[in-house]
Specification:
The complex is a heterodimer. Helix content of chain A is 56%, strand content 1%. Chain A has 15 helices and two strands. Chain B is elongated, with a radius of gyration of 26 Å. The chains are: A mainly alpha, B alpha+beta.
Chain lengths: 320, 193
């Protein structure tokens, strides 16, 4: 009887030893991660931290704000006829679309996304880029370049530095204005090339986006600074001579339904307003729809406007 | 002024209508095609910090240094199901630094001290070097430099840390400066998932 037991004993000892080693197992194979069971102590493996995507309603909010800002700009310029309110709107849009959203999602850059999407069906075009590209174009057919005045952050930053605008000679002004169509062609040409050689020129050579982000290549920051210094004496040089989207808006706003009319009622043909326009957008004593940037600077120079303001002030005075 | 419409008025209306139709039509056509927005993503099978083959070399820190944002839109995340929970984590400690009296390296690898190390499971107080540790990366501190990603890689680690784009911060630039600088074309624009 003793013999079979004695035969089993060493094996039993080995079995006990193995279970003992298991209880104090410290070895950690590098080929596999420990699971919640092997860690023990009620440990639960946490989820991978997932950086959440920007909520879709943010894109909708951006598009909504764009529509609201354009409506406000149209109302301030065409109805309220107030430069002061437009400056408030300009600063607001500059802060939001420029400094807060850091100049990204803008119609000027969306030219390239839309061009790529037209030729390359595999390219994913964000819906918000479609909205930002087409809404100002539609608005320009109805009221003119309402996006340029008060909404566009690139225009806004230039508009706020206009100090002592010089009058650019007519021929020079018109020749320089053709540059933007060349830039537009070039930007579209580079965007529609095959994906490997595609380049977004407008974003690459945007002079002001570096200022909005307070970082960027030194060259473009210098170019942006130069544009601002030149912009003190030549009103909004980027908008008038280089902005590719301005080129599209200028073409469409020729056919717009309502535009800026400088006098509130009676046309005087006095020409006093010409001095008030920093962008040379008044020809033959009327605002030119394709180059009027909706800045509302011409109104105070009009004698009829002054009469109207006195009348509205008088009409308001007794009631208040 | 409000009399008979002139030829000019009629032509103007026609041009405006045609323009509205053309612009609106193109917009509608494109918005039907515009699917879910694309987003910049990191293909970490290509990222030099996480793919095998490059070990023991300085990490590529382009994601941290080239993003236009002050704090890069790229961050490191730890896939806990793959994490070895090592005591001396090669992504947490600078394993080349001197050992301290507690038997652990004295220097940390993260330049911004963004990794939190907590003992988990059944803690053996008499032998702390044999515990499991959980490594959690602080989203606010991490700037996506990728040193920990490079550190946590075979043979030293299991490769559980990888770089990911935080979509809440990413500005979605057309011309992403990280993508321009990425040495391995690991920074790609893909449809958002």
């Amino acid at each position: 009887m003793g013999r079979p037991l004695g035969f089993l004993l060493p094996w039993l000892a080995v079995l006990v030893a193995v279970t003992d080693i298991r209880a104090i197992e410290y070895e950690r194979p590098v080929s596999a991660a420990p699971t919640a069971e092997s860690i023990g102590g009620g440990y639960v493996t946490p989820d991978v931290q997932r950086p959440l995507p920007r909520a879709a309603w943010w894109a909708a909010a951006d598009a909504g704000l764009l529509v609201a800002a354009m409506a406000a700009s149209a109302w301030i310029v065409l109805r309220r006829r107030s430069r002061r309110w437009l400056v408030v709107l300009t600063i607001g849009c500059l802060l939001y679309f420029g400094f807060y959203r850091k100049g990204c999602v803008c119609p000027i850059g969306a030219i390239q996304n839309v061009s790529v999407a037209i030729v390359d069906s595999s390219y994913t075009l964000p819906l918000v880029a479609v909205a930002f590209f087409f809404l100002p174009l539609l608005a320009s057919l109805i009221v003119g370049r309402v996006f340029c005045g008060g909404v566009c952050p690139i225009g806004g930053i230039q508009d706020l530095v206009v100090l002592k605008p010089l009058r650019v000679p007519r021929t020079l002004d018109r020749t320089l204005a053709l540059l933007k169509y060349g830039y537009l062609t070039l930007a579209v040409w580079f965007a529609v090339r095959p994906a490997v050689s595609r380049d977004f020129l407008i974003c690459r050579f945007d002079p002001f986006v570096g200022l909005f982000r307070r970082t960027g290549t030194a060259e473009m920051l210098i170019v942006g600074g130069v544009f601002l210094v030149v912009g003190m004496f030549v009103g909004r040089p980027y908008c008038r001579y280089l902005c590719p989207y301005g080129g599209l808006l200028a073409l469409l706003s020729r056919f717009c339904w309502r535009g800026v009319t400088i006098t509130p009622d009676k046309e005087l043909d006095c020409g006093l307003c010409i001095e008030g326009c920093p962008f040379g957008a008044i020809e033959k004593m009327r605002a030119v729809r394709s180059s009027c940037l909706f800045c509302a600077r011409c109104y105070p120079t009009c004698p009829r406007e002054r009469v109207r303001r006195r009348q509205t002030a008088a009409a308001r005075a007794p009631s208040s | 002024m409000n009399g008979e419409p002139t030829r000019r008025d009629v032509l103007g209306h026609a041009a405006r209508g045609a323009g509205l139709l053309a612009v609106g039509g193109t917009a509608a056509w494109l918005s039907l095609r515009a699917g879910k927005a694309g987003a910049w993503t990191i293909d970490w099978t290509k990222c030099v910090n996480s793919r095998l083959g490059a070990t023991g070399v300085p990490a590529c820190e382009k994601c941290a240094s080239t993003c236009v944002l002050p704090l890069s839109a790229v961050r490191a995340v730890n896939d806990h199901s793959r994490c070895g929970r090592c005591c001396i984590c090669p992504a947490y400690f600078d394993v080349t630094s001197d050992l301290g009296p507690d038997g652990l390296p004295t220097q940390k690898l993260c330049p911004r001290d963004a990794i939190r190390r907590t003992p988990i499971g059944e803690v053996d107080p008499s032998d702390p070097l044999n515990n499991f540790y959980e490594y959690l990366i602080d989203e606010v501190k991490c700037n996506g430099c990728g040193r920990c990603v490079m550190g946590c890689k075979e043979p030293a680690g299991l490769g559980s840390i990888r770089l990911e784009v935080r979509y809440n911060l990413c500005l979605d630039c057309n011309r992403c400066s990280i993508a321009q600088a990425c040495p391995d074309d690991a920074y790609l624009r893909k449809p958002a998932t």
